[in-house]
């Protein structure tokens, strides 16, 4: 019975650890590459608005490489 409790606690701690690591590593929404859009990137209809700062961020897509570029619009 005690092993079941240890197993559940271990699983919860592992889940929390992986969640924290993924939050630190995944910085795609926080990327701002500057004012000039690099060549080969096309604007998409995807726009996000930060609810706190009200910044509008447009997504640009490069169809050749599959890369995404995030630019803050004024």
Topology, pairings included?
Layout: H1 2-25, E1 42-49, E2 56-61, E3 68-73
Antiparallel strand pairs: 1-2, 2-3
Keywords: Membrane, Transmembrane, Transmembrane helix
Transmembrane segments: 6-24
Report the biggest beta sheet as strand number plus sense, adding barrel if it closes. Answer: 3 strands, antiparallel
Low-pLDDT ranges: none
Q: Helix coverage percent of residues?
A: 25-40%
* Shape, per Cα inertia axes: elongated
Helix/strand/pairing class, anyone? alpha+beta
What is the straight-line distance between the termini? 59 Å
- What count of helical segments does DSSP give? 1
Number of strands: 3
Instruction: Give the radius of gyration.
Output: 19 Å
Order of helices and strands: HEEE
Strands side by side in the biggest sheet: 1-2-3
Number of domains: 1
As a percent range, the share of strand residues is 25-35%
Kindly report the oligomeric state of this protein: single chain
Overall mean pLDDT score? 86
A few lines on this structure:
Keywords: Membrane, Transmembrane, Transmembrane helix. This protein has 74 residues and is of the alpha+beta class. It contains one helix and three strands, in the order αβββ.
Care to describe what's here?
With 74 residues, this protein is of the alpha+beta class. The protein has one domain (2-73). 32% of the residues lie in helices and 27% in strands. It has 1 helix and 3 strands, in the order αβββ. It has one helix at residues 2-25, and strands at residues 42-49, 56-61, 68-73. A 3-stranded antiparallel β-sheet has the order 1-2-3, with no helix packed on it. Strand 2 and strand 3 form a beta hairpin. It is elongated, with a radius of gyration of 19 Å. The mean pLDDT is 86.
């Amino acid at each position: 019975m005690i092993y079941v409790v240890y197993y559940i606690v271990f699983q919860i701690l592992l889940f929390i650890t992986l969640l924290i690591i993924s939050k630190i590593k995944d910085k795609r929404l926080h990327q701002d590459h500057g004012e000039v859009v690099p060549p080969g990137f096309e604007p998409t209809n995807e726009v996000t608005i930060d609810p706190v700062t009200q910044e509008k961020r447009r997504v640009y897509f490069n169809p050749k490489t599959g890369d995404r570029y995030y630019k803050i619009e004024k």
